[in-house]
Amino acid sequence: MRRLAILILFVAEMAGCGGDHSKPSPTAAGVIRVGYFPNLTHAQALAGLARGDFARSLGPNVTIETTVFNAGPSVIEAMFAKRIDLAYVGPNPAINGYVQSRGKAVRIVAGATSAGASLVVRTDAGIATPADIDGKRVASPQLGNTQDVALRAFLVKHGLHPRENGGTVDVIPTPNAQIIDLMRTKQLDGAWVPEPWASRLVMDGGCRVLVDERDLWPNGDFVTAQIIVRTEYLEAHRDMVRAWIDAHVAVTQWLLENPAEGKQVVNAEVAKLSGKALSDDVLNAAWSRMRPTWDPIAPSLLACAGAAHAAGFLREAPDLSGIYDLTELNNVLRARHLPEVSTH
């Protein structure tokens, strides 16, 4: 994706640039187009597709078309262009998609993962405290993605600023797979990344954890990934969205009840998509820092919006009162005799 197209998504006053959201969806009733990442924080997508849970829930007359992404802004761009219908994505891209479309384009319909992100630094970079990041080169997966916003807000909190904002820290959006090589060759000093990349950097990249993001949130609980759906698709195909969510809840329960087997299934998918399986040490460390869930952990999303505002991606604090549609999730939870969730 061209950087210009990504940057356009973050110019708040150009909210209409995501495309004409009034056009009819080209999606056929028997097709659902899904986006996700080869990250452990998207474990339900990885496991549910591999095991066939989503296919069974949707039935034989529905075709699932998948696209693998590296980071959230590209997901939102694809959703605006109506190339995908449902996606697993972090909170900040979801917020941005909602704001840029004036609340029309996307809805959050379920949670996926709590936690599972860290700021890691090279052990020989001379970074022992946040103040030591002054003058360093630090990566994030993509401009404006959830970890990028977290990094920039963290810098501001500690009196630092990215170089492009007149500060002294080089914030370098870099695909996750490239960060390890750049760290090994000392072209980067640190990175704020999701799992399994944080653990890979620790185990294989000569890094250590400076900030486990759980330590920045009440009870260590915050949304890292959630399910979003194009509003137009949701309104036209609620039955298909509910079927997807039903499988998502079932897979979440299975992952929680069968962590050993779940890790292996997810790792096999990571290997298939990235070309390399995670070592047991990386897999176990990464899994220990995250928790699969269907709860969207809504209060943390509002805090993420505040961080995006502080980082300059949103000119004004957004009104997110309509970003959630948990109707189908709660229908599924009631049918499964599980507690419903709310946005409070």
Number of domains: 2
DSSP helical segment count = 14
Rg measurement, Å: 19 Å
Task: Please provide the ordered H/E string of secondary-structure elements.
Answer: HEHHEHEHEEEHEHEHEEHHHHEHH
How far do the termini sit from each other?
36 Å
Write the CATH architecture name of the largest domain: 3-Layer(aba) Sandwich
CATH class of the largest domain: Alpha Beta
Uncertain stretches of 5 or more adjacent residues: 1-28
Tell me the CATH topology of the largest domain.
D-Maltodextrin-Binding Protein, domain 2
Mean pLDDT: 89
Features:
single chain; 344 residues; alpha/beta; D-Maltodextrin-Binding Protein, domain 2; 2 domains; six-stranded mixed β-sheet; five-stranded mixed β-sheet; 14 helices; 11 strands
Q: Topology of this structure?
A:
Blueprint: H1 3-8, E1 31-36, H2 43-51, H3 53-58, E2 63-68, H4 72-80, E3 86-89, H5 91-100, E4 106-115, E5 117-122, E6 137-140, H6 146-157, E7 170-173, H7 176-184, E8 190-194, H8 197-204, E9 207-212, E10 223-230, H9 231-236, H10 238-257, H11 259-274, H12 280-288, E11 290-292, H13 298-310, H14 327-335
Parallel strand pairs: 1-2, 1-3, 6-7, 6-8
Antiparallel strand pairs: 3-10, 4-10, 4-11, 5-8, 5-9
